[in-house]
Amino acid sequence: MQKNIQAPKGTKDVLPADSHKWHYIEKTIRELCALYGAHELRTPIIEHTELFLRGVGDTTDIVQKEMYTFEDKGGRSITLKPEGTAGMVRAFIENRLFNEPMPQKLYYLNSPTFRYEKPQAGRLREHHQFGIEMVGSFAPETDAEVILLALTLFKKLGVNDLMLHINSIGCPECRKDYNTALREYLSRYIGDMCETCRSRFEKNPMRIIDCKEERCKQIVKNAPRTIDYLCDSCRTHFEGVKACLDAVGANYVIDPDIVRGLDYYTGTVFEVISNRIGAQGAVCAGGRYNGLIEELGGQALPAVGFGLGMERLLAVMEANEAAFPTEERLTVYFAAFGDAARKKAFALTQELREKGVSAEFDHMDRSFKAQFKYANKLDAKYTVAIGDEELERNLVKVKCMADGEEQEVSLSFVCDYFMD
């Protein structure tokens, strides 16, 4: 027996009953980004695989376990975008945005993102991300501004029970001393690690801190942490970020366990945590990536940003019982009976739409009574009945559905009635 076609595991349809929630979040994000002087940049859903090997890092879980990669008909290795920053940086370099005044504040919204991982609350194999990238400034105020944009967004959307966790993972210079200390600690446990972490030991030991395997989590509990090995420059910068957050009264926790799962991060890293959506509570994460633009062939420009999943944001809003605005109601429904009346109702419906008023009429050849029931289901504010008698008299009754009050209006001017 032929099976019904279903959406692939880890993907989800957004139904009409929920799409207005997305519209509300998108509108809030766009308005907030405008306040911060950020502009939208859209990148392709696919990129050359090399972009993520060089940018994200070939020892990360994303590259080793989660990417959707295929060979196209031209023999090129192509990857569905697993995160937003690398593509933004590629576009920044390719389109020479470095010639624009700095800092460049760029954001992406509803960007489809693909990772092959176990589907869980708010985490899907295809999900959509909002992210922001600020390029060109070393100042700690830039880190703080990015963080505060995220916190402001959550506040505007009615999500308040969150905690900001911050850390610094240092620069390539102070990372050398840290990696030496980390390898020395981990060397006694190599035989107990998972195969992936054993392969990371020499090339990128810090990735072991980020491993999700339980045995590796236990091993790294007492491992050295990056914050204890910062050089003077990195420590001064991190203190500057904290001072900016303190200046606006932002609450935060210093969390030495945060290293982030992408190799491009340097210096400040952060996560915004919710305790209402299960063990995987991060609803937003980001940090500095001062070397990524140069690594991908551009100038040596500093940058900082974050990304958050829209589905996960919706989940945390619902867990917080955040209020969503109701959908805009239909203004008028024309109930028509008879061929001539239906044509007139059709014309009036189109005239109102062209004037910016939502209107509808019967497409299903329902009975007159059924049309009024349908108008109720559509939650129309007004109904207008048109039949042979109304056409002959050039008068219709406009019924207010809230109180049942009716008013006679000339059919010739009925559209004007709804223009106030």
Question: What would you say this structure looks like, in words?
Answer:
There is one protein chain. With about 425 residues, the chain is an alpha+beta fold. About 40% of the residues lie in helices and about 20% in strands. Helix 1 (about 15-35) packs antiparallel against helix 5 (about 140-155) and helix 5 runs parallel beside helix 10 (about 230-245). Strand 12 (about 330-335), helix 13 (about 340-355) and strand 13 form a beta-alpha-beta unit. The chain has an 8-stranded mixed sheet with strand order 1-5-6-11-10-9-7-8. A 5-stranded mixed sheet has the order 13-12-14-15-16, with helices on both faces. Strands 2-4-3 form a 3-stranded antiparallel sheet.
List the helices and strands and how they pair.
Layout: H1 16-35, E1 39-40, E2 46-48, H2 49-57, H3 61-66, E3 69-71, E4 77-80, H4 85-94, E5 104-114, E6 126-135, H5 140-156, E7 162-168, H6 172-186, H7 195-203, H8 206-209, H9 214-219, H10 232-247, E8 252-254, E9 268-274, E10 282-288, H11 292-295, E11 303-309, H12 310-319, E12 332-336, H13 339-354, E13 359-361, H14 368-377, E14 382-386, H15 388-393, E15 395-400, E16 406-410, H16 414-417
Parallel strand pairs: 1-5, 7-8, 12-13, 12-14
Antiparallel strand pairs: 2-4, 3-4, 5-6, 6-11, 7-9, 9-10, 10-11, 14-15, 15-16
Helix pairs in contact: 1-5, 5-10
